[in-house]
Q: What sequence folds into this?
């Protein structure tokens, strides 16, 4: 058995340098993840806005048809009364 109690790591950097390098790598990965989540959020907001506009237009059309039906109903009532 060897007297050496730790594994020899082929990386010549110190322990601290390796740890900080890992932290830097994690920071880069988190930055990338944050950018992707932000893109998803922007896309979701666009989609949500498009759907709101669609529903607003649909509601306006429904209200228009409702008013027209009210007018037709009033006209029919006038015809019946006369």
A:
């Amino acid at each position: 058995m060897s007297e050496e109690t730790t594994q020899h790591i082929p990386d010549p950097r110190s322990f601290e340098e390796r740890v900080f390098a890992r932290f830097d790598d994690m920071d880069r990965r988190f930055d990338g993840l944050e950018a992707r989540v932000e893109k998803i959020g922007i896309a979701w907001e666009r989609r949500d806005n498009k759907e709101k506009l669609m529903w607003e237009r649909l509601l306006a059309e429904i209200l228009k048809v409702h008013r027209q039906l009210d007018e037709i109903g009033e006209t029919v009532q006038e015809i019946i009364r006369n």
